[in-house]
Write a structure and sequence with these properties.
By secondary structure, the protein is mainly alpha-helical. About 90% of the residues lie in helices and about 0% in strands. It has 2 helices and no strands.
Length: about 55
């Protein structure tokens, strides 16, 4: 019974950590998406358009 309690505690810890990692990842993804939307035309795209015009 004690073994199950330890396993349960470990499982909870792993779940909490993975949730934290997932939240951090989602936040980073959102931040990069927002910055991409804010600068609708990134410099690379501008260079590509300029090269296409030549």
């Amino acid at each position: 019974n004690n073994v199950f309690g330890i396993l349960h505690a470990i499982n909870d810890n792993v779940t909490a950590r993975s949730m934290r990692v997932t939240c951090a990842f989602v936040r980073r993804l959102l931040a990069s998406t927002i910055s991409t939307v804010a600068n609708t035309e990134p410099p690379e795209q501008r260079w590509r358009n300029a090269a296409a015009d030549i």
